[in-house]
Amino acid sequence: MAEWVQGLMDSMGYVGILLLMVLENVFPPIPSELIMPSAGFAASRGDMNLIMVILMGTLGSVIGTLPLYYIGRAFGEDRLIEWADRHGRWLTLSGRDIKKADDWFDRHGSKAVLFGRMVPGIRSLLSLPAGMSEMPMPKFLLFSAIGSALWATLLAGAGFMLGEHYDRVEAYVGPASRIILGLLAVAAVAWFIRRKREQEHART
């Protein structure tokens, strides 16, 4: 993976960074914590400009959020509520739960998008609830751009400073992303169990 990422950037330059960051948001197995530090390392060698690396990384990341945003927008809250009321009992999920989640995102969505863009494991997925809650596109793009710029700056800057040891960034961030995903999975299981017990208690 690292050789393929480096080869694409070597052959396509800044356009390669942009394309890789677009793909990273659509296909998370291509990690930004490998792409941007590698580009930062290239800047430290003088092959690229660090500011342009960050700009292309940010632009690619923002463009990459749009497919999932539009999927969420097309699916919509109403259709999801209807589906949950019909089939959600298998997941202990109701239309009321969807509505509560959507109301939460309406209140805190800007912060979720801003800070979530810097959290490995969920940064790509946040576009779905943003689209489902019909977050206005200008607001979504603004907070996505700010969060993405901060993340791109952090990763590229680390690669720039670490030089040929830039791969240490992925070595540290990779396990962190797996821990975050694991905690989210545990939280989801705990929520399902609690909902199941509440429903069983309500029937007795």
From TrEMBL:
Localization: Cell membrane
Pfam families given in the database record: VTT_dom
Ranges where the VTT domain occurs: 30-159
Membrane-protein topology: Multi-pass membrane protein
Protein keywords: Cell membrane, Membrane, Transmembrane, Transmembrane helix
Transmembrane stretches, start-end: 12-30, 50-71, 140-163, 175-193
InterPro entries linked: DedA_domain, VTT_dom
Protein name: Alkaline phosphatase
Organism, scientific name: Deinococcus seoulensis
